[in-house]
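Example complex used in Figure S2.
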Amino acid sequence: MIQTGLIPNAHGDLVTDASYDFYGLRLATCSLDQRIKIWQLDEANGTWSTEDDWKAHDAAVSKISWAHPEFGSIIASSSFDRTVKVWEQAAPAAAADQQTNANAGGQSSSRWIERAVLPDARGTVRMVEFAPHHFGLKLASIASDSILRIHECLEQPSLTSWQLVEEIDVQTVADGGWCLSWCKDRYWGEVIAAGCGTSGTIKTSTAVETTNTPSSTAYAITSVAWAPLCGRSYHLIATGGRDGHVRIWKVKPGSDDAAEGDHEAAKWTAASVADFDHHKSAVGRVEWNITGTVLSSAGNDGRIRLWKATAGNVWRPAGSVGVEQATGETSTQTENKDVDMDT
Amino acid sequence: MSSTENLNLLPPLIESGRFHQLVKAGQTISSSFSPLDNSFSAFITYANTDIPSKEKETKSRTDEEQPIYFSGIDIVPSSERRLFITDTLIIFAAFNNLLLSAENHPVGWLQDDNQVKLMRKLAIDYVNFIKECWVHASQPIPRPEGPLQFSSDHYRSLYTCFSLFVVLYIPEPGYDLAPVGDELMEWLNIHFIEPSTEEGDHLSALEKPWEDESFWPYLTRAILRGLTKSSAFFLGTLLRHESEDLQRLTTTLESLVGNQPRLQEFNAERDFAFSFRRWKDKVKALRIEMDEIPEDRRFDEFDNWWDRLSNIVGILEGRFEVIKRVCEDLGGDWKEVCVAWSIFVDPRMQRQHLPDVVSQVLGDTPPDPTNLEDMIHAALFSGRPAEGLRNASQLDRWLAAHLASIMAPLQLIDAEDDEDADLSTRDEHVLSYADYLHSDPALWRVTVEYMYSCGDVGKDRADEILLRVPLRLQEQNFEEIKIRAGDVVGVLKDVNQTCFQHKREAVRRSVCRIAAQTLVQKKDYGLAVSYCISAEDWVGLGSVVDRVLDEYIINGPQIFSQYAVAIAPSAQKLQTPQGHGLSVHRLVFTVQYAHLHELFERHEYQEAANKIVAIFSQDIVPKSWWAIVLCDAVQLLESGPSLLFSSSSASFMLQKLNEIFVRTSQGSGDDYLIVLSRKLKGGGETEALENLRGVRLALARYFARCTVFSAQ
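Predicted assembly (1055 residues):
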């Protein structure tokens, strides 16, 4: 583990989400300060500089997601103001032509134009994620009303009209962890894993059916991440829970040949392949790298922990980073040795 | 390559063990992965459950800084390491080509002598290359690119391990059942030089070297290691020793040591064995001669020379307990004992018998568990290549990956395919190395090369990397403009080629689609169209063409024509429609329509009239554009004195016009009038229809002129 960079002060208030673009060259961050910032990586020296910065919502911004680049430079943001907004970066030429940033109160420096506001949620929107590109320009969001909504863009170049194509009641318990993650693979169609409420259940939903999957504790699941399939014969879904556990589930799709009406055979099944309680406190976020070989988890112990599959598909801890002051001489020494501050 | 497992980021946000205070204040830590290089960001966020409100206690940090930290899993390869990585790829690629050609041959072809020979050659290439790196890293030269990332000792470890692997597992074809002792001794002597040259120099300078305490250990080890020259030299010095017994014995010993049969001196192993037996009989005779010397004549003033000599003769006799004891006394380890066994105890020992001996030796002198190099040696000696790989992966993932890639075709690993596992042992190690390479995005070509050499899992992972290679189409620099002028776009071209090379068509198309989208943003419609066509993305092509047509609506015919010229070559290539549907039609229309405006520009009205008729009769005008083209026709209808349209063509246009009126009255006005309405900048259907009534009037007048003309 090695520190490679630092943005000393990203926002005026707590950062709520940071999301890399498709290439990892830009980072979108959002904050309780209601703003979105786009940071650009200088590959020569590893530093990040602000490319754009604007007030995006009338309340805290909760999550941010990049659309696949074949649709252009587009992000979606979800907010406690109960909306999801879609933003497009104006092309350099277009930016000169037209007034940028329609958003009231925004800064004129931003080249991001508000293309759509999706006001369907009846609660604060906690999560938004674009669908894998092969399903078209779609996004899923989940709000504190425990409804998973899927919107589809009807007119692509203009991005202005979005249709609510799906509303799925995930579960109605307040104060849960609201999370969702798309299945990245095309073959199984549009499948989402979503969690909500305190039942500790993650549901995998397709347009036609909803299946309860992992259920093991009475603790809320705060985060779910569907690993890229990458040639494996089974799916991996990671969950982080308030019980302090990071779990990895091996998920197998229902049988294709299941007879019509044979719901058991058609259901997705899940089995736990790893269960870690290293955080010893609630886990707030789990995420996979692009090849599904490393899982990261963030816990209330103040550490980001990494997990890797080793020989025989045994998952093992693969290091961690934290923001507490180092203790004792040994850790200070290792810091001196390994921390490489490029900023 | 490995780095600190648990890192505390700088600057720290809170004292050690106090993070719970932040949690109490409704805060926690969060992170996100970068697709670029397996690095990740970390930042403090609000705890998911708390609905943040300004009144809540998040205040405790709101006035403070909100840093975002960035960390990487692996240390990015730099300086000599990068060279090492890129240069060994060449050997890996050659090796991989050999494996790929095996697909065109019957099963077992790879295990054929010729192929094994080739594999051995490539493996030796690796060894030689590592050796060069080691030598280079050992040189005390100034290094302007900064200090070495990996020490010369690291490369030395790789060198010993890789060359041992070659000795033990890839013998020259036909020699796999030959005695292995000499080769092992050669390996040991190359990599673990004993006794040291300095000691030899020191001793050779002495008049009576046996009076030096290092003399006997030096001589014993030289003989143990089969170093005939220095053995002979120092045995020769003993002829000056005052003891006549010793002088006599030494004379015999010198000839025995000098004439020890070596395998390479014989054509047949049987002859070697026979000769060795006869030699051993002479050793026994020497022992008998030694035993006859009375106890009191076995000393000189410094030492019991007899005991020392007895050790040497014991080694030659092949007494295991003597060899083991002597090795221990000399500071030698299990390796030295095992190799000495293969020379003196069982000189006919084959590779396959080595593990039995090794297990016996390791029982008494185990390898050093803190020394990965030693652990790898032990596993390789013990005939456990898979275990060797596990140790190697801890030492350097490079080593494990490259050993595994040779072990697999030699069927040393993965002999039994585990049905459940998606990854073979080979792929596991190769992919682990590729994962490390991914820490440097600039090494993407190398990274995917290794990944694509694997099974489906590796290939799919490579796809993810390849898709995310930044195309840098956004960057405006002079160099790029130069490249683009030749229609070859730098990185994109490389990525395309890599896709072709590894037959990853889906990735190539996806990359082309992304490129097309980016190029459209830059209004580089020509390249965008060619990438859409290359990706066979007809929907995408349609939207690019629409953007070009939009240029007409927004910016007028001149600017439109400029852009349309750029897409014309692509339209020409697609002239033979292969059922690509509407998009291609629209592309062809765009080009033709731009041509029409050029004709207007040049006042070639007859040609322009013909063009209008042609594009209507070819049925390539989208419905939404009928109204626009008809409006364009007005100036031609009204120009005189000659009639530019035949009356049948004019009737045809009237038909189209009427269809628009009829359909609009039926409520489909949008389909026909949308473009014209947009062209009229905010004018609705009514205004568009007004314009079309103008067309109708022009047509009516034209028909009148036709009638007059025909009456004349």
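The CA atoms of residues 320 and 341 of chain B lie 7 Å apart. Chain B touches chain A through 93 residues (CB under 8 Å).
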